[in-house]
Amino acid sequence: MKKILILLVLLSVWVSISPAQVKVTFSLANKNISAGILSYDVIATVPAGQTWRVGACNIRVNFAENPAGCLTVHIDNPAINANPNISGANGYSNMTTTSVASGAAIGLNILTFYTGACYRFTTGTYTLGKIRFNITTPFAADTMKFRNSPMLFPTVVTDSMTTLVYNTGYSTIDPVITGIEYTTGIPENYELFQNYPNPFNPTTNIKYDVPKASFVKIKVYDMSGKEITTLVNQDMQPGTYEAAFDASKLSSGIYFYKMETKEFNKVMKMVLVK
């Protein structure tokens, strides 16, 4: 009997100190610039063995641009590309985006007052909706960071009626893209240069030339050909540019970056050494 009591006590202590597993991780993907609008998709990833019962949420993202004052929050009601399972269906109101902290951040809002069975996201990756910004003047770089506790007006995430705590109930991953720098002067031809430094840890710069107005894509891939991130995906004026790539969340190895326009394609190799 004593052995059983001791076992029960130990089990209760183990349960009480065992860390809770994150139910959902938020990230940004598919940066795009078109028709004077900068946009990102807000992505939710539910890890193996978990289920996220989607309650009312405010997913908030700080933004900064270089030079300052080039971006403003584009408010959408309903949100663009909103997940149809949790926007205007299944007991949810239309998802919206709003300005947060006097325009210093943007919020993607999942709205429901339904107290019954919330829609469930099981293990997998889901697009929740877009956040969008007005481009008031041309800018060189943007930085996006999720607004989490202990900041004022942080992201709020609920699992059904339970509020999830940052870093134990939910987590976030900020984009690895740090921006684009423009250099004056018009080149004669398209060109994609070797990154520098190379090898690198964890950041490097990728220089490229655009001789005329073009839609330019630059993407990074791993050895298997899997796309890692998009560095550039926008209309660009003639000039010489540099895109900064931050691989702090990636493992050591060989990676490839590809520049693509209607008239030009080139792939280069770079080496991350940690």
Q: What's the gyration radius in Å?
A: 22 Å
Strand tally is: 21
Derived structural class = mainly beta
Beta-strand fraction estimate: over 45%
CATH architecture name of the largest domain: Sandwich
Q: Class of the largest domain in CATH?
A: Mainly Beta
- Overall pLDDT metric: 86
Q: Note the overall shape.
A: globular
Q: Would you give the CATH topology of the largest domain?
A: Immunoglobulin-like
Total number of helices: 1
Largest sheet entry? 5 strands, mixed
Q: Helical content, roughly? A: under 10%
Count of discrete structural domains:
2
Termini separation comes to 54 Å
Order of helix and strand elements from N to C terminus: HEEEEEEEEEEEEEEEEEEEEE
Strand order of the largest sheet: 5-9-2-1-13
Stretches with pLDDT under 50, minimum 5 residues? 1-19
Structural account:
With 274 residues, the chain is mostly beta strands. Helix content is 6%, strand content 49%. The protein has one helix at 2-17; strands spanning 24-34, 37-46, 52-53, 57-66, 71-74, 96-100, 105-110, 120-121, 124-135, 141-146, 158-159, 162-163, 170-173, 177-183, 191-192, 203-210, 214-221, 227-236, 239-246, 253-260, 265-272. The strands form six sheets. It has a five-stranded mixed β-sheet, with no helix packed on it. Strands 6-7-4-10 form a four-stranded antiparallel β-sheet, with no helix packed on it. The protein is globular, with a radius of gyration of 22 Å. The termini are far apart.
